[in-house]
TrEMBL record:
<feature type="domain" description="HAT C-terminal dimerisation">
    <location>
        <begin position="3"/>
        <end position="73"/>
    </location>
</feature>
<dbReference type="InterPro" id="IPR012337">
    <property type="entry name" value="RNaseH-like_sf"/>
</dbReference>
<protein>
    <recommendedName>
        <fullName>HAT C-terminal dimerisation domain-containing protein</fullName>
    </recommendedName>
</protein>
<dbReference type="GO" id="GO:0046983">
    <property type="term" value="F:protein dimerization activity"/>
</dbReference>
<dbReference type="Pfam" id="PF05699">
    <property type="entry name" value="Dimer_Tnp_hAT"/>
</dbReference>
<dbReference type="InterPro" id="IPR008906">
    <property type="entry name" value="HATC_C_dom"/>
</dbReference>
């Protein structure tokens, strides 16, 4: 299976950024890349997670209680990304909403 094959591969340089490595592997279509990137993106502390849950409570209010799970997740993620300068192409998002 994919894990056994990856474990049998030669060891790569330890100076390599693991996220860059797995992003490259994802571009090459490696079957373990998505799982590895998910694992590497787990926060080291629960502070950000707790903050996300707190803000999620503001997203799902008595006026928006019928949002689907998927919509709630998207709103939470975009809300967190919005705070990182330049990560969301503002003009593209506005164009999508105007369609």
């Amino acid at each position: 299976d994919a894990l056994d094959e990856w474990l049998a591969d030669p060891v790569v340089s330890t100076n390599l950024d693991p996220i860059a490595y797995w992003t490259g592997m994802q571009a090459a279509g490696h079957p373990l890349s998505s799982m590895a990137l998910d694992f590497l993106s787990i926060p080291g502390t629960s502070t950000d997670v707790e903050r996300s849950f707190s803000k999620g409570g503001l997203t799902v209010s008595r006026f928006r209680h019928s949002l689907s799970d998927e919509s709630t997740r998207y709103l939470s993620v975009v809300g967190m990304w919005h705070k990182i300068p330049g990560i969301i192409p503002r003009d593209s998002v506005i164009a999508l909403f105007n369609e």
